[in-house]
Design brief:
single chain; 1 helix; 0% strand; elongated; 58 residues
């Protein structure tokens, strides 16, 4: 019974470490792609793109 439990823990640990390393690799690639070169003020897209259409007040 000990070896069955040990095998389960080893398989679980392997997949857990594999997921963690894959996530850290994709996180490093994603930060380079998400960088906005047009964001001069540091507020994101809030100042450039209005979120609502202007109301027709005529």
């Amino acid at each position: 019974m000990f070896f069955i439990g040990l095998a389960i823990v080893m398989v679980y640990s392997y997949f857990l470490l594999r997921i963690v390393t894959n996530q850290s690799k994709t996180k490093g690639r994603r930060t380079v792609e998400e960088y906005d070169v047009y964001d001069a003020d540091g507020m994101g897209n809030q100042g450039r793109f209005p979120d609502k259409k202007p109301k027709n007040r005529a």
